[in-house]
């Protein structure tokens, strides 16, 4: 049997496991709480690994590896930043979010915001839904593109066939088992990812001659590759490091990650999931970094014109490993992409079916109809994303540029402030959300992201200021009117 | 052909992941003790 056939068989087995998980989850899915939040029953391992796997897309196995290959150790500034984002999410936001979601019966992030701030005119919900839909809808389409390309490279099918094959599997298991299927498959995929990102860098660093030899040989090529500044000075250094550190600010605002905490079974599960997720993050981020560093020495040709350092992981797997093991490594790449796209697909679909049709329009009246509407939304959105990816509709991919930072700046500050006990008014929350998303878009479009600093940093700070300032003004106004009701005080 | 590597780089690559993992373990143990 040829090496390619063995790899295809391993990947086919991996895809079959995903469908099997989807089928098993479907048998347990009856109510809207099941479909949108796995009946709040996630254990520690699934909460931890599914949340981290869904937040790390193909970027960590392809982009981050390529970045450390190109820039050396200085590119790894993203790792402490992402771990800080994990820490805030897991230790600070997760327990509060779970309690609040259970108290209010919220199934989605807009549900939670509406319940916390009161939302009689649905403005808060509509704005949140629009931001989630624009950001995640575009993201899903872009991830379908990545799925098609990964399938093309790994299985050897054409790009459109890759989209149809990968996309159909994602849509089918998400549609069948809803949140439970997405979480279980994410857990499986996250486990494959961490196994690959521990094994590959260990093998690669050993092949170079060990940790010390890897760094010393990189230093011999260019001392900038092993310095924390990467030969940058002054404002260039500040912009580069602050930009990488800024990535972590996005974590508290990602709805597809936050819903995992809302679905955790209890406080004890959250506590255990904190440790598991932090260790997962350390292994995955530093694994990707060390792989990029050692890969620069093992495959220097990828840094030459015509080479693509982001292809280091798949190419090195094929060259270093037995085809069956290489198949597992390549499944890890698909895992990184698919775990993110299924999570985002479900959240984007729930924004339409649960938040828009059910809560705003009141068009869905029974639990059964709610699950059906959710499934229909997953199907329609999934197929639309596949068509967009196939036709490469550029305008949709435009939204991807703002997805991480836009949602991070829109929802992160408001959630952090509100759940920390800060008295935010409904208008304050709305101002924070709109400012966060608006500043992200404006900063990005003006080109300041490339010349000054990553858009998430100013957008996050301004959103925080806007939420606090508007709430403060409302409180003052409320206090100056005798007998006037206090501004809606964040549901506390 | 080998060249010296700054100490800060070793600390960044080895100490940061160790400290983060250690802090997570410590937080977990403290939480468990409180549970009991």
Please name the defining characteristics of this protein.
heterodimer, A: 492 residues, mainly alpha, 20 helices, disordered C terminus, B: 36 residues, 81% helix, rod-shaped
Summarize the structure.
The complex is a heterodimer of chains A (492) and B (36). With 492 residues, chain A is mostly helical.
Plain-language structure description:
The complex is a heterodimer of chains A (about 500) and B (about 35). By secondary structure, chain A is mainly α. Chain A has helices spanning about 5-25, 30-35, 45-55, 60-70, 80-105, 110-115, 125-155, 160-210, 210-220, 235-245, 255-260, 265-300, 310-320, 325-360, 365-390, 395-400, 400-420, 425-445, 450, 455-480. In chain A, helix 4 (about 60-70) packs across helix 12 and helix 7 (about 125-155) packs antiparallel against helix 14 (about 325-360). By secondary structure, chain B is mainly α. Chain B is built from one helix and no strands. Chain B has one helix at about 5-35. Chain B is rod-shaped. The N and C termini of chain B lie far apart (about 55 Å). The mean pLDDT of chain B is about 90. The chains are: A mainly alpha (about 500), B mainly alpha (about 35). The interface between A and B is medium-sized, with 30 and 23 residues.
List the SSEs and their pairings.
The complex is a heterodimer of chains A (492) and B (36).
Chain A: H1 3-26, H2 32-37, H3 44-55, H4 58-71, H5 78-104, H6 109-117, H7 123-155, H8 159-208, H9 211-221, H10 234-246, H11 255-262, H12 267-298, H13 312-320, H14 323-360, H15 367-391, H16 394-398, H17 400-419, H18 426-445, H19 448-451, H20 456-480
Chain B: H1 7-35
Regarding quaternary structure, what we see is heterodimer
How many strands appear in the DSSP assignment of chain B? Answer: 0
- How many H/I helical runs of chain A? 20
What's the N-to-C terminus distance of chain A?
64 Å
State the low-pLDDT regions of chain B, or none. Answer: none
Rounded Rg of chain A: 22 Å
Radius of gyration computed on alpha carbons of chain B? 16 Å
State the share of residues found in helices of chain B, binned by percent: over 70%
Mean of residue pLDDT values of chain A: 90
């Amino acid at each position: 049997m040829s090496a390619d056939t063995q790899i295809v068989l391993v990947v086919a087995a991996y895809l079959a496991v995903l469908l099997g998980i989807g089928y098993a989850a479907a048998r347990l899915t009856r109510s809207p709480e099941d479909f949108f939040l796995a009946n709040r029953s996630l254990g520690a391992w699934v909460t931890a690994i599914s949340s981290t796997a869904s937040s790390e897309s193909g970027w960590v196995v392809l982009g981050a590896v390529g970045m450390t290959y190109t820039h050396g150790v200085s590119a790894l500034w993203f790792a402490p930043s992402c771990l800080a984002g994990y820490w805030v999410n897991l230790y600070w936001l997760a327990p509060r979010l779970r309690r609040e979601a259970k108290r209010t019966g919220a199934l989605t992030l807009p549900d939670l915001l509406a319940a916390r701030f009161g939302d009689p005119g649905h403005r808060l919900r509509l704005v949140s839904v629009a931001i989630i839909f624009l950001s995640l809808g575009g993201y899903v389409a872009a991830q379908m593109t990545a799925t098609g390309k990964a399938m093309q490279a790994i299985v050897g099918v054409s790009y459109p066939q890759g989209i149809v094959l990968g996309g159909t599997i994602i849509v089918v298991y998400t549609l069948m088992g809803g949140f439970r299927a997405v979480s279980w498959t994410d857990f499986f995929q996250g486990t494959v990812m961490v196994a690959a990102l521990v094994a590959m860098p260990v093998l690669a660093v050993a092949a170079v001659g060990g940790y010390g030899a890897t760094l010393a040989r990189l230093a011999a090529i260019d001392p900038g590759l092993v310095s924390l500044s990467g030969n940058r000075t002054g404002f260039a250094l500040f912009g580069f490091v602050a930009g990488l550190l800024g990535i972590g600010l996005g974590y508290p605002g990602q709805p597809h990650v936050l819903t995992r905490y809302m679905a955790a079974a209890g406080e004890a599960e959250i506590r255990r999931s904190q440790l598991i997720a932090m260790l997962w993050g350390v292994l995955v981020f530093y694994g990707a970094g060390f792989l990029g560093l050692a890969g620069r020495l093992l495959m220097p040709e990828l840094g030459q014109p015509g080479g693509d350092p982001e292809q280091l992981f798949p190419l090195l797997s094929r060259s270093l490993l037995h085809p069956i093991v290489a198949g597992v490594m390549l499944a890890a790449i698909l895992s990184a992409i698919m775990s993110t796209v299924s999570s985002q697909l479900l959240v984007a679909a729930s924004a339409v079916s649960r938040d828009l049709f059910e809560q705003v329009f009141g068009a869905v009246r029974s639990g059964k109809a709610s699950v059906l509407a959710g499934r229909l939304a997953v199907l329609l959105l999934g197929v639309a994303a596949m068509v967009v990816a196939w036709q490469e509709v550029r305008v949709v991919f435009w939204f991807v540029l703002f997805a991480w930072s836009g949602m991070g700046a829109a929802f992160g500050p408001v959630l952090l402030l509100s759940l920390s006990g800060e008295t935010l008014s409904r208008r304050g929350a709305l101002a924070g959300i709109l400012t966060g998303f608006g500043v992200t878009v404006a900063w990005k479009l003006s080109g300041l992201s490339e010349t000054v600093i990553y858009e998430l940093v100013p957008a996050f700070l301004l959103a925080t200021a806007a939420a606090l300032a508007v709430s403060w003004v409302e409180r003052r106004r409320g206090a100056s009117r005798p007998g006037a009701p206090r501004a809606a005080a964040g549901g506390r | 052909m080998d060249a010296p590597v700054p100490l800060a780089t070793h600390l960044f690559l080895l100490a940061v992941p160790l400290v983060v993992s250690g802090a997570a373990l410590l937080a977990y143990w403290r939480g468990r003790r409180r549970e009991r």
